[in-house]
Amino acid sequence: MTTTRPVRPGPRSLSHSLRRTIAILVAIEVASGAIQGYYGPIMVDLADDLAIAYADLNWLEAAQLIFSALAVPALARAGDLIGHRRILMIATAITAAATWGIALAPSFPVLLVAWTLQGVYVVWLPVEVAIIHRRTAGAPDQGRVTRRVAALLVATLEISIILAAVLAGQLVERVPLTVMLMVPALAVTCCLPAVWWLGGTAAPTRGRFDWGGLSLLVLAVGVAMGA
Fold first, then answer.
1. In a domain? residue 6
2. Residue 110 near residue 49 (C-beta atoms within 8 A)
3. Could you give the count of Cα atoms lying within 13 Å of 12 in the half-sphere of its Cβ?
4. Considering the domain boundaries, does residue 3 fall inside one?
5. Is residue 8, in this structure, part of any structural domain at all?
6. DSSP 3-state assignment of 122?
7. Any residues with CB less than 8 A from the CB of 56 and at least 6 apart, and which?
8. The domain containing residue 75 runs over which residues?
9. Residue from 40, 61, 27 nearest 187 by CA
10. Are 84 and 131 a contacting pair, CB within 8 Å?
11. For residue range 72-104, what is the model confidence (pLDDT) as tens digits?
12. How far is CA 162 from each of CA 30, 41, 68, rounded to the nearest angstrom?
């Protein structure tokens, strides 16, 4: 009597799937680098265009950093509960909308809201690492692969930040400001179909969202900012 064993994907097909996933995540980190490095050389031009006092530009970074500090733990936990790919898609959609909002903002209040919401992009990297960790589950070299991919993503991010800053510096005197601001918006928008192509991930883990912990975090950040 012979027994049948379940058919498992061979190493070649698994490797191809993983390479495709890594390529998509690298592309997303290129967009992340565009966001983080592109705006620096044009902040003064942005302030002049919207008649913003230079001192008020600090509110953009402050508001985004506060929002990011609250968004990362909340969205990372949500990724464990409902799926990391789904959270990556949601975060990318919000970031794309916010980046277009920055490009087309008619006033400082609109710019401040869009700039704040754009801070959700900071969850990309931890969610990407979680996706790789899940997709290599059961492999004997899971830890090594996850560390190498994480290093590749960070390196891509840092290089992209530098190149984005250089590109913005070269374009600032040659291209209208609105057109310049559309460049990172287009980069992030192109990530949406890429995230869709990632396909499904492993089943979410069971558990609950720590609303109490998030409330304490909001309170702590609020007290720190108030002080």
1. no
2. no
3. 0
4. no
5. no
6. helix
7. 47, 108
8. 15-226
9. 27
10. yes
11. 888 888 888 888 889 999 999 999 999 999 999
12. 11, 11, 22
Answer whether 0.70 is exceeded by the pTM.
yes
Q: What are phi and psi of 200, to 5 degrees?
A: -70, 160
Helices (H), ranges, the chain = 11-38, 43-49, 57-82, 84-104, 108-118, 124-135, 142-171, 177-189, 191-196, 211-226
Lowest-confidence segment of 13-17, 29-33, 221-225 by average pLDDT: 13-17
pLDDT digits 0-9 by tens, 184-224: 999 999 999 988 888 665 555 666 766 666 667 667 766 77
Q: Helix, strand or coil for residue 113?
A: helix
User: Which token pair is 20?
Assistant: 């495709």
Give CA–CA dist 143/150, Å, rounded. 11
The CA distance from 150 to 133, in Å, is 10
Q: How many domains does the chain have?
A: 1
CATH of the domain at 113: 1.20.1250.20
What letter does residue 227 receive in the DSSP assignment? -
- In-domain check, residue 4: no
Neighbours of 13 (CB within 10 A): 10
